[in-house]
């Protein structure tokens, strides 16, 4: 981490409330880095209190008087003002780096967290890590822009569920077969249920096969005895 916006994003990844972060002017710092971490390649913000910042790196014109070495009056007031100002600058840093798409995704995720999509969606999306949530939100925006599509569902499953393949039945246009090469469990079922709720239209019926692939005529690796599921 080098910049303020990196610290804010890292805190979000580690489920650390931004309000719990406390920033201060670094006592000793490098002229080439904005954050003065205990370790040069520090990635974990937990246990770092306060987060020391070289405020002269980008914001000298703001802090040159407030953080002047000769300014020794009202130290607690100064520390509080510095912390509040850096929080505002850090939040602006994050927003200024967001594209319109990222902004829409943030609003969409806020709606989900507030329960506007229902408790099942909120519970399901919590099963995914930050990268997984970003993929789901991108899929939802794509769906709003282009309409529902099996291609979107297929992309979501194959991007988010390891060892998965999505098939469309040759016998029934509205039947979708999904192979998941993992042992069936509560977490993987919850993830699949979320993707079904968000990305599959009503006319379609989805069958999910866990761990063992169903047999496909002409594909020898799926036709091994005691290693396939009959469907």
UniProtKB/TrEMBL annotation:
Superkingdom classification of source: Bacteria
Protein name: Iron-dependent peroxidase
Organism from which the protein derives: Candidatus Enterocloster excrementipullorum
């Amino acid at each position: 981490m080098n910049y303020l916006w990196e610290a804010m994003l890292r805190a979000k990844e580690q489920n650390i409330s931004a309000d719990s972060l406390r920033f201060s002017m670094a006592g000793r710092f490098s002229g080439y880095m904005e954050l003065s971490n205990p370790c040069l390649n520090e990635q974990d913000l937990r246990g770092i209190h306060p987060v020391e910042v070289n405020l002269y790196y980008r914001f000298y014109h703001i802090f040159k008087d407030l953080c002047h070495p000769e300014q020794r009056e009202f130290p607690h007031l100064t520390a509080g003002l510095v912390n509040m100002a850096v929080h505002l600058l850090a939040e602006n840093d994050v927003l200024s780096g967001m594209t319109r798409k990222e902004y829409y995704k943030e609003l969409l995720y806020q709606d989900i967290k507030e329960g506007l999509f229902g408790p099942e969606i909120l519970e399901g999306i919590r099963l995914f890590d930050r990268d997984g949530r970003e993929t789901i939100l991108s899929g939802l925006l794509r769906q709003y822009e282009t309409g529902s599509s099996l291609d979107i569902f297929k992309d979501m499953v194959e991007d988010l569920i390891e060892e998965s393949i999505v098939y469309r039945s040759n016998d029934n246009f509205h039947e979708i077969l999904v192979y998941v090469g993992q042992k069936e469990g509560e977490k993987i079922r919850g993830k699949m249920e979320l993707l079904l709720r968000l990305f599959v239209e009503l006319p379609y019926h989805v069958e999910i096969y866990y761990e063992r692939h169903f047999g496909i005529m002409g594909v020898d690796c799926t036709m091994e005895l005691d290693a396939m599921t009959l469907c």
